[in-house]
Write a structure and sequence with these properties.
This protein is α/β, with parallel strands linked by helices and about 850 residues long. The protein has 29 helices and 37 strands. Helix 3 packs across helix 4, helix 3 packs across helix 17 and helix 28 crosses helix 29. The longest helix is centred in the last third of the chain and has 18 residues. The N terminus is likely disordered. Bound molecules: adenosine-5'-diphosphate (ADP) and zinc ion (ZN) (2 copies). The site of adenosine-5'-diphosphate has 14 residues, from helix 14.
Length: about 850
């Protein structure tokens, strides 16, 4: 080989390292066919064959030769089948941050990259089944009427029925076929038929991936003397008439002039409308060669028809100004700076965010703002759109695939420099990020609770560090972790202690439900005080929000006389009630005890487990207040995008008097006419078997208090509880964050919870409970083995709070350590030894820094 060819071989990649969105946490080597070698780019998508199936993968590296010492055999390396992108959709920055996520959270890189791209950009792969010639033969010999059944079809009429169906109706999509055959899984008989060669499965890419929407448009054809057929409009009338060929009708003339008035080009549909012509006029012009057709890219704009609020240029308060200045310093210096912006609701944080993002744009840098999933905030989208116009792209879960794709493309091309979005927007391809804002940084929805696991806030901080950006964590009730970091100097700290224009904070009052119970002698959903307040609010023509603080699925025990819930002796969390065997179980350490028949504290027999749903509450209110216009928002309505948005917007317009919902209602919305917020059964949240239960409740009540009385009207918050003296409620009613923090951080330190330790949750799940138990035991042994120097505490195995989910038995282990690095070392070693001893690690899910222990 001459040196010249060597050099060119060096330059042209022959192999691609490909990450695939499957559970495997590794990359694969594929060969690039020569046609693709020069076009392939790191960050582009490819179609590859993974085992027997086609899949979309992402190129993460290119190389001219195989790595030295690789065990790969040249002849076994498969070709890349298709190169899907010319321009890589994943920028180098996005590749880096997804890689960090994959490493830190031990989650597959390919899945993270998929989450980073707009949904629907990938082609989906469809499996089909069809009958083979051999299958037809068999079927023939089984006729007529199945008198003689060939041996291959023996053992079940399902096989025969399946072959008949395929013979009669042709190819089926696999899932549709299973449905027709009345089964949700792929049954054994189907695999048998395939095995015997009577049917075959094939894979093919279905449905074109989402792409830019185009529409047909026409433009005037340019001829040497201006535009064909017509002289320019500015010419004097006489010349103009002279220049008009006889053959042109009025309508054609109108079309041409309309086009000229619109920079010589228009979408056909628009032209027909604007010039008031028929489509045949356009066809004639095309035939005459006066206009030519082309395809115009069309933007699907989620806010195209939205009414935008008027933007006001406030004079910032001195606290706002100080905050803005502190953010501008690192922005100007292109330095990394994490900053906690602690400001009570209504203190003007959003205004600071807007100015900080504007400052980034003024420096020709980009900006990102993340908001919680549930805030959805059609209102915030509009507010930011009014400020940033086309500079902002909006990502959230209620966009259509097409809208999402277009918004993402505008960022990728650099047309938009700001992104507003929920969790996955942390991966948005913003060019030259100057500032990242994370609003309501404490919100649990920043945590993705399925693969790929990641926490958007923590990912944003790392991204800001890598890209030398300022990152602002905003909150009225910072997470314990973030506030702790601001205390130790790891984060900067900015405080907005007062509301804009000194608007009063709502009064929060506690209603002691034990007394309500004592008076009525039976459990009540609503106290008289709350019912009266609803009535009064309505009479004043003001609005009410009723909140139900309920999440998670498990029940817990509560004494209605003294408000006590029963806690684990080791763990400082409430025990979960298992109805089946009448026991109370701790889901951290597996402590068991019999469910008592009377309250261990006061001896009362009135022990209940909690559970009223939003629907039931809406129904009760409807009966009680037939004149009120009610609306309801919860997870069920959330999945119906338009209804959810409409309910919120209607409520904002005053077309709904009372809104019932779960805690998602507490966040971010600004409804000036709401003067009453009632919290029904705050206790459900307080007693959750989660060490963050008190923190969550404190946050909820504080936020709720911020919802009432945001306009000029004073607000009232009524909290119904069986725990009137709980420290989370006490401090929340006093709006005393610091008091709560001091008390809570002591608990965390004493019991060894974050921020003082790193946590990892290992969930073992399996259809077979015995297998789940053995795997969990083996996992424990492997962890203990790897933990020789006792850097970690290993708790469990214990049943997960959701002990059975979708047919899987779930058992969990918790690993705690003061050293994150050592914790990771122990877990990695344990997982490796599990794999080596033949365990299928698909049944073990690892969650680093779990947010919800549910
Ligand atoms: P937060 O995000 O802290 O809840 P916002 O930024 O939404 O607070 O501000 C609350 C209200 O006060 C908004 O209606 C906003 O338009 C208004 N506002 C914010 N800053 C100022 C200011 N400097 N002067 C007057 N009004 C302001
Ligand atoms: Zn009691
Ligand atoms: Zn325990």
């Amino acid at each position: 080989m001459t040196s010249a060819t060597q050099v060119s071989n060096e330059a042209v990649p022959q192999y691609a390292q490909v990450a695939v969105p499957v559970h495997l946490n590794k990359t694969f080597t594929y060969r690039l066919p020569s046609a693709m070698q020069r076009a392939a780019r790191v960050g582009s998508r490819v179609m590859i064959q993974l085992g027997a199936k086609p899949a979309t993968g992402y190129i993460v590296a290119l190389s001219a030769r195989l790595r030295e010492g690789t065990s790969l055999v040249e002849s076994e390396i498969k070709d890349v089948q298709e190169l899907l992108d010319v321009e890589p959709p994943l920028t180098p920055e996005v590749l880096k941050i997804t890689r960090w996520v994959a490493d830190y959270y031990a989650t597959p890189w390919g899945e993270v990259m998929r989450a980073a791209l707009p949904a629907g950009i990938n082609a989906t792969v469809e499996q089909t089944v069809s009958i083979t010639p051999a299958g037809r033969e068999q079927l023939k010999s089984a006729q007529p009427a199945g008198k003689s059944i060939p041996p291959a079809l023996a053992g079940g009429s399902a096989k025969l029925q399946a072959l008949r169906l395929l013979a009669d109706e042709g190819e089926f999509e696999l899932s549709a076929f299973r449905l027709r055959m009345g089964t949700l899984q792929t049954p054994k008989w189907l695999r048998d038929l395939e095995h015997e060669g009577l049917i075959e499965r094939s894979y093919r890419t279905r449905s074109l991936p989402t792409r830019a929407k185009r529409r047909r448009a026409v433009r005037l054809v340019k001829s040497q003397s201006g535009y064909a057929g017509v002289p320019p409009a500015s010419l004097p009338q006489t010349e103009k008439q002279a220049g008009r060929p006889r053959t042109q009708t009025e309508a054609q003339q109108r079309a041409i002039e309309t086009l000229r008035a619109n920079q010589n080009a228009m979408a056909i549909a628009d032209l027909i409308n604007a010039a008031n012509i028929s489509e045949s006029v356009v066809r004639t012009l095309l035939k005459k060669g006066l206009v030519e057709e082309f395809e115009e890219e069309m933007r699907r704009d989620p806010l195209a028809r939205a009414e935008l609020p008027v933007t006001e240029d406030f004079k910032l308060s001195s606290a706002q100004l100080a905050a803005l200045t502190a953010i501008e310093v690192p922005l100007n210096q292109r330095g990394f700076a994490p900053i906690l912006l602690h400001g009570i609701t209504g203190s003007g944080k959003t205004e600071v965010y807007i100015r900080a993002m504007r400052a980034a744009l003024d420096l020709d840098r980009g900006a990102m703002m993340l908001v919680p999933e549930i805030a959805l905030t059609p209102i915030l989208s509009r507010r930011l759109r009014a400020h940033f116009g086309d500079q902002i792209a909006i990502f959230h879960s209620s966009l259509s695939k097409g809208e999402r794709f277009d918004e993402w493309s505008r960022l990728r091309r650099g047309e938009a420099r700001v992104v507003l979005g929920t969790r996955s927007a942390v991966f948005a391809p913003v060019k030259d990020l100057g500032v990242i804002i994370i609003d309501e940084e404490q919100d649990a929805s920043y945590r993705q609770e399925e693969s790929p696991f990641y926490h958007a806030r923590d990912t944003a901080i790392v991204r800001a560090q890598r890209e030398r950006a300022a990152v602002v964590l905003g909150s009225a009730t910072p997470s314990l972790e973030s506030f702790h970091n601001s205390q130790t100097g790891k984060y900067g700290y900015l405080h907005l202690p007062e509301r804009v224009a000194n608007r009063p904070l709502a009064q929060a009052e506690i209603i002691d439900m034990r007394q309500v119970f004592a008076r009525r002698k039976k459990p009540a959903v609503f106290s008289d005080e709350l019912l009266r307040a609803i009535e009064e609010t309505h009479l004043r023509r003001e609005q009410t929000i009723i909140l139900l603080n309920r999440r998670g699925y498990s029940s817990f025990i509560l004494c209605r006389s003294c408000g006590e819930s029963i806690e684990c002796p080791n763990c400082d969390v409430a025990l979960t009630y298992h109805r089946g065997d009448q026991t109370l179980v701790c889901h951290y350490c597996n402590h068991h005890q019999r469910a008592p028949s009377q309250c261990p504290v006061c001896g009362s027999k009135y022990i209940y487990y909690i559970g009223e749903g939003t629907e039931q509450i809406e129904e009760l209110l409807r009966r009680r207040f037939p004149n009120l216009r009610l609306g309801r928002i919860d997870r069920d309505t959330k999945s119906r995008r338009h209804e959810f948005e409409k309910t919120l917007l209607d409520f904002g317009k005053g077309e709904i008097d009372l809104l019932v919902g779960t805690q998602m209602l507490a966040k971010g919305h600004d409804f000036p006419n709401v003067t009453l917020v009632g919290v029904v059964s705050v206790d459900a949240g307080l007693a959750l078997p989660d060490f963050r239960a008190a923190e969550r409740t404190f946050q909820l009540i504080t936020q709720v208090a911020g919802r009432a009385g945001r306009g000029n009207l004073p607000g009232r918050v009524l909290i119904q509880t069986y725990h009137p003296h709980h420290y989370a409620l006490r401090h929340a009613c006093a709006q005393d964050y610091r008091g709560f923090y001091d008390e809570e951080i002591r608990h965390r330190r004493n019991h060894g919870y974050p921020p003082f330790v790193a946590l990892a949750l290992l969930l073992v799940h399996h259809k077979d409970p015995a297998r789940a138990r053995t795997t969990a035991q083996e996992l424990r042994s492997a962890l203990v083995e790897a933990n020789q120097d006792h850097a970690c505490r290993i708790l469990g195995p214990a049943p997960a709070p959701l002990a059975r989910l979708r047919g899987d038995y779930r058992i969990q282990l918790l690993v705690k350590s003061r050293s994150r690095k050592q914790m990771r070392g122990v877990i990695d070693a344990a997982m490796k030894s599990m794999e080596e001893s033949g365990n299928d690690l698909r049944s073990v899910t690892l969650e680093i820094d779990p947010v919800s222990m549910m």
